[in-house]
Amino acid sequence: MAVGIFDSGLGGLTVLDAVSRRLPDVPFVYFGDNAHAPYGVRDADDVYNLTTAAVERMWAAGCDLIILACNTASAAALRRMQESWIPTDKRVLGVFVPLIEALTERSWGDNSPPREVAVKHVALFATPATVASRAFQRELAFRAIGVDVEAQACGGVVDAIEDGDLILAEALVRSHVDALKRKMPNPEAAILGCTHYPLMHDAFQAALGQDVEVYSQANLVAESLADYLKRHPKMIGTGSESLFLTTGDPARVSDRATQFLRRKITFQQA
After folding, report:
1. Is 63 considered catalytic here?
2. Counting beta carbons within 10 angstroms of the beta carbon of residue 166, is it exposed (0 to 12), middle (13 to 18) or buried (19 or more)?
3. Phi, psi (degrees; rounded to nearest 5) at 84
4. 70 is catalytic
5. Alpha helix locations (H) across the chain?
6. Contact at 8 Å (CB) between 1 and 238?
7. How far is CA 258 from CA 84, 154, 219, 263, in A?
8. Which residue, 31, 45, 179, 245, is most buried by CB atoms nearer than 10 A?
9. Count of other CB atoms within 10 angstroms of residue 202
10. Tens-digit pLDDT profile for residues 80-106
């Protein structure tokens, strides 16, 4: 049994890398639904069906605790899954919570009324599906008031990263930041609301300027997972080896993952 990390493609490897460094003794099962990536242009029902199928496969691999490293899945499917689908002995968690905890400087267990926070103008960069769901704004509103969130749908960035075309990805990042700044000229903070985007962190930071604090999810999720497992140690399980699964071509996905993480990664067919 291991902790599962799910993503529509390779972006979740940024989360896997961070949690592996934070929790080196915990085995992980990584599932990339590369055959159906990207999720960010799919409708909510499609994302839900693909996500639940992947989660069931990870349960079969022994994962009682699964992190949806895919923001689109977290935004479009997680609430529906938690309300009516996930068994009581399993846990499926998303990646918005650690971001909002960091942005609002309050713990998720703090159920006091929403209050004003230091940051007033926030740029959210995410996939079209995540932007359309307004899930980030909804969850933020439970905890904070007076925060202006301007969302920018970053079409094409995930495809460019998955294809290994980082020159195109950087050009698209600059274009999307320019579009965001036309709507919000002076953001104080920026949320990289897709687990692929930390791979382009430097490009986002350069386009936004050094005065803008850029929040990437990987390290925040790693700290949040470490805290969760400290409070729920039975969810770690008894597994000893990590496993990499993909719905895509294992050889191609392995090569790309090895390039991303700069260490040998071998995927198996899911």
Report:
1. no
2. middle
3. -145, 0
4. yes
5. 13-22, 44-60, 71-76, 78-84, 96-104, 128-133, 135-141, 157-162, 166-183, 201-208, 217-231, 250-261
6. yes
7. 37, 25, 20, 5
8. 31
9. 12
10. 999 989 999 999 999 888 888 888 887
- Which pLDDT score, from 0 to 100, does residue 241 have? 78
Q: How would you classify the pairing of strands 121-126 and 148-153?
A: parallel
190, two tokens: 């920026």
Exactly one of 70, 119, 147, 265 is catalytic; which is it? 70
Residue that has been written with the tokens 């960010």 in this structure? 40
pLDDT tens digits, one per residue of 156-166: 999 998 888 99
Q: How sure is the predictor about 203, in pLDDT bands with cuts at 50, 70 and 90?
A: very high
Question: Quick check: helix, strand or coil at residue 151?
Answer: strand
Catalytic, out of 177, 194, 212, 245: 194
- Its pTM stands at 0.88
Return the minimum-mean-pLDDT range out of 18-27, 31-40, 229-238. Answer: 229-238
The pair of structure tokens assigned to 253 is 């996905």
DSSP three-state, residue 11: coil
